[in-house]
């Protein structure tokens, strides 16, 4: 079967997600732990979210861990903050140091078209959502069925340890 996906028929709409802690603007890098279908991203949270997701001790360096369930695609890499304007979604409202969902995602449609070509008709297709989180030096993208903030922790080491425990 030949795929009939046409990206021009999609209208990617970038929406900010405020239920997820926003990334910090410092140089600490995000960290990914992944298995076949689960991706957990940990990253330092913005100081503006300390009160909302805290309280924290003055010596804490708060990190959150976000689980993306039934992930079919993920990547972490360029562009970063300095060159975010080259990202294909920059014209649709993608902004620096923020958590986004892409509604009517052309990436989701393309992945669904490939999955439909490969899958048997006996199983119902999984609804996938497209998430984008922008950082200082990189951008994280994930196509998954949903996300869950599994916790906000006082340090990156704690968040990473939790991520490893949950991805097994």
Any chance you could write out the topology, listing elements then pairs?
Blueprint: E1 13-16, E2 31-34, E3 39-44, H1 50-53, E4 63-69, E5 73-77, E6 99-103, H2 106-118, E7 129-134, E8 139-144, E9 146-153, H3 156-167
Antiparallel strand pairs: 1-6, 2-3, 3-4, 4-9, 5-8, 6-7, 7-8
Which descriptors apply to this entry?
168 residues, 5-stranded antiparallel β-sheet, 4-stranded antiparallel β-sheet, globular, disordered N terminus
Strand order in the sheet with the most strands: 1-6-7-8-5
Structure class: alpha+beta
Instruction: Provide the succession of SSEs.
Output: EEEHEEEHEEEH
Low-confidence stretches: 1-8
Overall body shape = globular
User: What profile does the largest beta sheet have?
Assistant: 5 strands, antiparallel
Estimated radius of gyration: 17 Å
What is the averaged pLDDT score? 86
- Count up the helices: 3
Report strand %.
25-35%
Number of strands: 9
What does this structure look like?
- The chain is an alpha+beta fold and 168 residues long.
- It has one domain.
- Helices cover 17% and strands 30% of the residues.
- It has three helices and nine strands.
- It has helices spanning 50-53, 106-118, 156-167; strands at 13-16, 31-34, 39-44, 63-69, 73-77, 99-103, 129-134, 139-144, 146-153.
- The chain has a five-stranded antiparallel beta sheet with strand order 1-6-7-8-5, with no helix packed on it.
- It is globular and about 50 Å long.
- The model is unreliable at 1-8 (pLDDT under 50).
